[in-house]
Write a structure and sequence with these properties.
The chain is mainly α. It is built from ten helices and no strands.
Amino acid sequence: MALADDPRTGMNPAQPPAMDPSLIDPEEERIARAKRIEGTAKWLLPLVVMALAVWLWDRVVAWNEIPHYVLPGPGLVVETLWEDRALLLGSLWITLKITFMALAVAVIGGVGLAVLFAQSRFAEMSFSPFAVILQVTPIVSIAPLIFIYIENRLVGLLLCAWIVAFFPVLANTTLGLKSADHNLRDLMTIYRATRWQRLIHLQLPSALPYFLGGLKIAGGLALIGAVVAEYVAGTGGIGSGLAFRILEAGYRLNIPRMFAALILIAITGVLIYGATSLIAHLALRRWHESALKRE
């Protein structure tokens, strides 16, 4: 049953009143339109640029008639990726296993050592130079020594990847633990809070954004460390990772497979960065300034 118009206003109460155009702020409308455009461009522009890059790659190969053993076209790379999926995905699993194991050990060791540094100045002065030395020394120069002294290939690969991923977690977490508000520290001292109460209730929450920033860096570095370690180790057989597949494809001039393995590594790195960024957003979105949305 339709509702009758209100005799006083002449309007149907079931329908919302129309917005008076004179009440709409042009500046607010412009800002809202700009935000909508920016939100669409954030996803559309990278896709368009990537599609143009792939198209240009394909055209360069076609126009110059470049042989596939020099530079394969994107279509041939995708076809190789599909045909060799069993081999490449098996190698990807090996690389991923080393990457995530190294990242887990880096997180546990980095956070634990950062807490020790925050609790003891003497521990920081004693051990921080060794952490810096490990960070600034290229892993390519350390890896051959590691594989000389460590017989287990998996442990050697894990150690190489851990060395690369360890320092960002340690440095960022240590900085975060030291960045707790000094006024809150003084307040907890007044209330006679213990060292561990100050750590749990003040320093660790303050260090969380710094730790998550280090985690995003360490995720990509763990993948790089795993790939570089596989290159140096020259691993082969059933347990071969993607780095060995690239080396093998290069020796056999199977350049399409080499490109396919490289694409898998790149996609994996992007996914790791996206996952760690999502974790950081979910952990900080309700309270930290870096993740709060502004009106």
